[in-house]
Amino acid sequence: MDFNYFLTLLVFSPLLGILLLAFMPKANESGIKMLGVLATLPSLILALIAYFSYRGGNDLANFSEKFRWIQFGGQGAEQQGIFTVNYELGIDGFGLVMVVLTAVIATLAAVASFHIKKEWKGYYMLFLLLEIGMLGVFTSQNLILFFLFFEITLIPMFFLIGKWGYYDKEKAAYSFLIYNGLGSAILLIVIMVLFSRTGTSNIEMLSVMMNAENAPLFAPVSESLKMGLLIALLVAFGVKLPIFPLHSWMLRVHVEAPPSIVMIHSGILLKIGAFGLIRFGMGIFPEQFAELAVLLAVLGVINLLYGAFLAFIQTDFKMVLAYSSISHMGIVLIGLGALNEAGIQGAIFQVVSHGLISALLFFLVGVLYERTHTTTLANLGGMAKGMPLASGFLLAGAMASLGLPGMSGFVSEFMAFLGLFEEMPILAAVGTIGIIMTAVYLLRAVLAITYGKAEREFVGISDIRSFEWAPVLVLIGLIVLIGVYPAVLSEPLQATLETILMGIGG
Amino acid sequence: MDLDTLLSFDWGTMTPEFIILGVIAILSVADLFMPKHVDRKVLGWAGFAGIVLALVSLVSLIGTETTSILYDTFRLDSFAIAFKLILLLGAALVMLLAIDYRTNDGLEEYKGEFFYLFLTALLGTMFMASSGDLITLFVGLELLSIPSYVLAGMRKRNLKSNESAMKYVINGGISSAITLFGMSYVYGIAGSTNLREIAQVFGGLSDPQHIYILGLAFFMIFVGLSFKLASAPFHMWAPDVYEGAPTPVTAFLSVVSKTAGFVIILRILLSIFGYIPVAQEDGQPIPLLFAVQDYIAFLAGATMIIGNVIALRQRNIKRMFAYSSIAHAGYILVALTAMSFVTFDAIWFYMLAYVLMNLGAFAVIQVITMKTGSEDISHFAGLYRRSPLLAVGMGIFILSLAGIPGTAGFIGKLNIFMGALMVDQAHYVLVSIMIATTVVSYFYYFGIMTQMFFRPAASDEKIQLPAGTIAVILITVVGTILFGVLPNLAIDFMHSNFNQFVDFMR
Question: Looking at the DSSP assignment, which residues form a beta bridge with residue A310?
Fold first, then answer.
């Protein structure tokens, strides 16, 4: 099978939707919403084709493509093959998993966006642009292209939060823009230092050049510079992930953005931070990364505990989930800090699993808010009476999130902690407090909503209906699938994992 | 000089200048004899046609041998052609804006003068690009400056316009005088005004006394010329003049005049001060230009910080763009500081991008300020509802000015970063300032976005656009995106036609 342009098609297929939407009459609400969802389908189908053709034995290298894009520094540089930036897309196992996750969540979030009340046209156009950015991030093969897609996610998010969010939306949009703008600014410095010193921005080339003895660099890169660059990377992706204390923007976004956007944000955008750390941090600076491992594990435990304790005292369900996200990103860091096979696998599993779980939870938040117009725990209560199905799904989501065996959350937490216990048992033991806390705060919040005393009469409240079934069932299905049969994830990841482990010296 | 010598010159190299000169003559005579009631717009269109004709003749000169006429005072090398292309492109767009510009404070009666004064200033910039001699350089500079002073004060019955002309002429006069004083030192030591001869004399200079004096000369010339760039510390005139001058003139000052400033600085700095040996390192002489790098770097940093930080507090859109254009001068100075092998590329490409994005933004500003009669930023509120074309166009220009990927502005910045980081003593601090101030600029740039897209409009009345303005906006939008997505169109064109400007000093 010929896979030329396959990835380009996959990444840019939402563009077709944007173009079609531009010609839709503004008032045609249902038409726009249908088109918005349909436009996310091509990339989903292509992502699934890629996944199954890979499971069927097709080599992922077949998917890669490459064209000359920008040539800096004139023909002299071009002849030496330096300072050329190619348009190059490709995927490995990790990228494949992330692309599938992105495509799935994007489609479901597009469905969830049916709740959007105004200016659907602009909303869906920006939404699709956001999807292009996210898909591009996971398929770029060089840093400059990666940065381009990374920034493309920034602009639609700014508008999506600032225009369609809740009460304090503009502030949230600005705080998103500035924090992430600073993060990407730092990332850009790292990228440009690497590019200007080595003459290439290709990720694979860089990982070879930075670790070879006598690589033909344009200008030298000292050991201390490498360390500095890695720390800068850690800060840049730490904002995205988010690592304590760089997290405050993320709380605002979780609370102020529309739930469908939070599905995307919490489900995928936060994962770009983890993806970047694994792909570039570990890939390009393996030795320095190993030196920082303890720091990462400590940061991970801090994130885990800090998020868990603060989640416990929140009175708003969205805030509980926001802090829970911070807490769960701690597990990613713990896994990375462990720096062994189990740990890294756990971290990547957590990336995927948390993406699905938080998408599910925020979808349900959207459903709840749509009907009750509140997310305060005190005002919600006894929902199980009016909407038993939704309450059941909420409980299922919470169970997955706190790591009930048989669901995806369990696999990732188990692996990450297994890894850390092997390396730093004391730290890991401290970390387990976080796991207990997770159970406490999630059950507290979810039980308060479903079984607690009904403070307010919600008259004529309706349960999950029509289009809302699809996202819930798909997400729960995937969560259980990964929990019961982790091989759907671990097999595609195996090759990536081996490459990473080889880089850090096994 | 007898007739034979005069005829022996290859006057064809001056075709673009002759065309502009001819049009100026025709316009001024026509304006004199045209009845009072006839709309002077036709003169504007004639001027526009003249610029386009000059552009065409310039394009036909690409690839000709480097020639110099009039005893080496007028050079046509790749540097001159490359920058004249940008100057003419910018001037053509400004001309279109000027044709559509209307106010009710007394500009109508002077509209004829407006056009040919403007062309005269353009002629000055073209001479600066081509000069091979201190005298022609200075004549070009004054030919640009004097019409600019008049243009700034063109709105006779507007107090701010009067003030701006006054400020501009006094400050400009002082800076010209300082430049000239610096040049007189150069002449005093070299005994010639010809740039090539000066370079030859200076190459063999060893008397420390002379070098000291030339250091002074450098500072004076640089100070005088930084006035034209509106870079710190000689930026103070810019906000007042930009605010007071008619909008097309503001656009001209911030784009064409600034480009001309960089043209003359490159000419003088490289051809004179790039050859004065001040010290020896490893047997290689260090030219004066490298010895004063820290000074230029300091100014670049200060310019970026001042421009971006003060812009935060502006409510008047023209003042805001004045500070933004100060900031952009700072960015380009970073490229000048670096002096790597991509410096020329970086400046040329950045100027091209800047012409497109800034002129586009000024086109929108002109429409809004003409419509509302006020320059307050709040009049951009709800622009998206009133005119989606304007709002989306402005959005793209702002993204480009803010250096967001996918636009020409981003590639321009990338070029500058690379140049600054690839040199042996990489300018980490300077690049960090540039990136940090870029993030600061998000605040005020996205403030305009907030107005346009988030805030409700005072009235929902649609905005009608004149044809010329539509053309300007379309051309600049297409250019901004095209050179952002496929920058190689411009970069390859430059590399294949101007060959790295190797003939710059030959």
Answer: none
At CA A204, angle to CA A198 and CA A208, rounded to 5? 60
Q: Write out the two tokens for A376.
A: 């305060």
State percent of chain A over pLDDT 70: 98
The low-confidence residues of chain B, meaning pLDDT below 70, are: 1, 104-110, 499-506
What confidence tens digit (pLDDT) does each residue in A323-349 have?
999 999 999 999 998 888 889 999 999
The predicted-structure confidence for A12-48, as pLDDT tens digits, reads as follows 999 999 999 988 888 888 888 889 899 999 999 999 9
Residue A15, chain B, CB below 8 Å: the answer is no
CB of B424 within 8 Å of a chain A CB? The answer is yes
Distances (CA, A) of A299 to A304, A305, B157: 8, 10, 65
What is the mean predicted confidence (pLDDT) over A92-117?
A: 90
The verdict on whether omega for the bond into residue A242 sits within 30 degrees of 0, i.e. cis, is yes
Beta carbons within 10 angstroms of residue A417's beta carbon: 24
Distance from CA of B499 to the nearest CA of A (A): 8
* pLDDT value, residue A458: 66
Chain A segment 210-239 residues within 8 A of B by beta carbon are 218-219
Residue B362, min C-alpha distance to chain A (Å) = 22
ipTM of this model? 0.89
Contacts of residue A80 in chain B, CB cutoff 8 Å? none
Alpha-carbon distance values, A98 to A55, A474, B9 (Å): 15, 17, 67
User: Chain centroid to CA A21: how far?
Assistant: 26
Q: Which residues contact A49 (CB under 8 A, 6 or more apart)?
A: none
What is the value of pTM for the model shown?
0.91
- Best of B345, B413, B491, B495 to disrupt the A interface (most A CBs within 10 Å) is B495
**Residues A230-273 pLDDT 10s:** 999 999 999 988 888 888 889 999 989 998 999 999 999 999 99
Residue of A188, A217, A225 to mutate for B, most B C-beta atoms under 10 A: A188
Both structure tokens of B407 = 């636009």
Alpha carbons B280 and A135: distance in angstroms, whole number:
53
Q: Cα(A433)–Cα(A437) distance, rounded to whole angstroms?
A: 6
Calculate helix-pair angle for A469-484, A388-401, nearest 10 degrees.
30
Report, as an integer, the average pLDDT of A365-369: 87
**Identity of the residue in A70, A155, A178 whose CB atom sits nearest the CB atom of B487:** A70
pLDDT score of A503 more than 60: yes
- Using a CB–CB cutoff of 8 Å, tell me whether A4 touches chain B: no
Tell me how far apart the alpha carbons of residues B120 and B115 are, in angstroms, rounded to a whole number: 9
Q: Which whole number is the average pLDDT over A352-359? A: 92
Give the angle subtended at the CA of B97 by the CAs of B92 and B101, to the nearest 5°: 145
Question: How far is residue B9 from each of residues A136, B13, B75, B125, measured CA to CA in Å?
Answer: 57, 9, 12, 22
**DSSP code, position B379:** G
Please list, residue by residue across B339-352, b when 16 or more beta carbons sit within 10 angstroms of its beta carbon and e when fewer do. bbbbbbbbbbbbbb
pLDDT in tens, A153-167: 999 999 999 989 888
Is residue A506's pLDDT more than 60?
no
Query: What residues contact B326, with CB distance under 8 A and at least 6 apart?
Result: B230, B231, B232, B235, B238, B303, B306, B307
